[in-house]
Structure formats: structure tokens, C-alpha cells
Amino acid sequence: MKNSYKILVDISHATSPQIRGIGIYERNILEQMPTKEVIYVGVSPKPYWLNKKSNYLELPFKFIPIREQVIIPYLAIKFGVKQLHMFGNVMPLILILIKKIKVYLTVHDVSFTYSKKYIFC
Length: 121
Known about the structure:
Oligomer: single chain
Largest sheet: 5 strands, parallel
Low-confidence stretches: none
CATH topology: Rossmann fold
Number of domains: 1
CATH architecture: 3-Layer(aba) Sandwich
């Protein structure tokens, strides 16, 4: 499988059993993405709305920090992808050191920057 994919896309928010705003946003973007040379990864079985020709891998780890910081970078390196597209607020730290893979981070919102006073008012 190595070198057969150019892009790995984490679609965990869109495949989550409890889809929220970011998952809907992610799914709308995914509808515009190509299927060839892309491998999608998520936390549930392959969703019905993903193109049948799409390559999809269900991730065994649901715990977000392990998935984002360990599993996804490992798969990106294993598959030899050139680009990694993630949706959320963080990118894998190891890929800052390994500059062979371009990381695209789509941030849905910046709620993590809100003060506690703003959140709990």
C-alpha cells in the first residue's frame, strides 16, 4: 500500500456517531475532494455518503489525543503520503519534525481560545 496514496484525510468528526457542527462542515468539504490517490480515516465504519470508490480505513482508537498524535501520523508515514488533511484544532507534533509530509489543518472555530468568563456567562 505504501506510495499508492498521496493524501490522507482524517474524517473522524464526520464519521462520529454524534455528529456536530464540525462534522457537518467536514462532510461538506469532503464532497468536493477527489477519490483517487486519497485515503480517508475515521472512527466508524465507512459512511454511506462517502463515494464507494473511496479508500477508507476505520481507526481502532477512539481516544482523540492518541488518534491525532500517534495513529494518524503513523499511518501517514506508513502509507508514504505527501499531504495530511486534518479538521480540528491541533496537528500531530511529530510531523513538525518530519517535514516530508505537508499538513493542512482546517480549523472550524477557535472556541479553545475563549476565556472561561465568555464560555460560562
